[in-house]
Recover the amino acids of this structure.
């Protein structure tokens, strides 16, 4: 009975060549005997290798689709049949484990620097209208002694004696498939292909040193909490004097004691006496950058909201500003003296409103009680 080569690789029958190769590499990394000591892994890997050999060959795959088995005795293939014999797919084994084919070559000493991030705390006024803020950054900068070369004055890098400048060394292992040649970074030169017999005494060969530097960042008007401002080329200088990364300044807006911000709108709460809400009044509101007169109309109800247009935060992109919303908290007096209470009762009677007198029997609450008791 023909083997299910598609099932061994876990791919559908309409899988293309790239899908088959990806599936093979994934399984090879999992079941190769060099990384999986389980005795069953060797047999599993043999099946995986045979499945890839068959499905990556158009002629053999066509035979499988017709119900045959090209690796079975008399099936037209076999472990030693066809180009490459049992080592068909060997380069893909190397790719699966070592990330590519052939020599990778030495890695450069000069590499790009990393990005850096800095938190900046600002007040609402500063985020609303912008500010030029001084910041201090602890980061890597170019070594001025060697200008990034990493070598002492008058000296130069030397070709590594261990790897001959290739940056990697090879080792040979014997497996049931035969000899497997693998490559790994050279430990003597850390993969650079060169050594520094006389490193720079200031940076120890890194081409950069850590220091604290000060600069000024321009914060645009309208930035919000959590936004990041990118300063190109102000991050870490790369090893070997490589190009600098970027510096990101993350904005954190301090809470304001009066205003709450929602987008570009501002919100505040103002307490007005009950009498002012009933009779109407005029309030003076101190905004972020001016004083505004706000009219409270007679009969204003609790939890009313008044809007002052264009007195919020400037829009970050585009012109104009958000609005300022004033939420009115109508305050009812909690303590009245005798004269004040009599005046309020007279006012209530003049409006035809009955006022409960808790100290007298037969008042409003007693009638409510009697209604519930069926009297």
């Amino acid at each position: 009975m023909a083997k299910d080569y598609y099932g061994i690789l876990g791919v559908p029958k309409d899988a293309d060549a790239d899908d088959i190769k990806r599936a093979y590499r994934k399984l090879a990394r999992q079941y190769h005997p060099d990384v999986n000591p389980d005795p069953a892994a060797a047999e599993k890997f043999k099946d995986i290798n045979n499945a890839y050999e068959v499905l990556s060959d158009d002629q053999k795959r066509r035979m499988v689709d017709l119900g045959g088995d090209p690796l079975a005795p008399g099936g037209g293939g076999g472990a030693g049949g066809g180009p490459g014999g049992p080592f068909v797919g060997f380069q893909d084994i190397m790719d699966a484990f070592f990330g590519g084919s052939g020599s990778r070559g030495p890695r450069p000493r000069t590499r790009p620097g990393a990005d850096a991030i800095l938190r900046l705390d600002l007040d609402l006024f500063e985020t609303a209208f912008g500010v030029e803020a001084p910041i201090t950054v602890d980061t890597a900068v170019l070594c001025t002694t060697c200008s990034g070369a990493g070598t002492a004055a008058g000296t130069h890098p030397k070709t590594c004696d261990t790897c001959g400048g290739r940056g990697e060394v090879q080792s040979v292992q014997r497996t049931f498939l035969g000899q497997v040649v693998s490559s790994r970074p050279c430990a003597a030169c850390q993969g650079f292909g060169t050594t520094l017999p006389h490193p720079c005494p200031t940076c120890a060969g890194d081409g950069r040193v850590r220091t604290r530097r000060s600069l000024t960042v321009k914060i645009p008007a309208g930035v919000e909490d959590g936004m990041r401002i990118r300063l190109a080329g102000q991050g870490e200088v790369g090893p070997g004097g490589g190009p600098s990364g970027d510096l990101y300044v993350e904005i954190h807006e301090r809470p304001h004691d009066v205003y709450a911000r929602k987008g570009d709108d501002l919100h505040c709460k103002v307490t007005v006496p009950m009498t002012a809400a009933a009779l109407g009044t005029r309030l003076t509101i101190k905004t972020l950058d001016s004083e505004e007169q706000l009219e409270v109309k007679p009969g204003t109800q609790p939890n009313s909201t008044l809007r002052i247009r264009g007195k919020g935060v400037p829009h970050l992109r585009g012109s104009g500003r958000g609005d300022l919303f004033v939420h009115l908290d109508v305050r009812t007096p909690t303590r009245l003296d005798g004269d004040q209470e009599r005046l309020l009762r007279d006012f209530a009677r003049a409006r035809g409103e009955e006022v409960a007198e808790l100290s007298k029997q037969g008042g409003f609450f007693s009638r409510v009680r009697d209604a519930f008791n069926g009297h």
In short: Residues 5-98 form a domain with the Helix Hairpins fold (CATH 1.10.287.110). The chain has four domains: 5-98, 111-145+208-255, 260-331, 338-373.
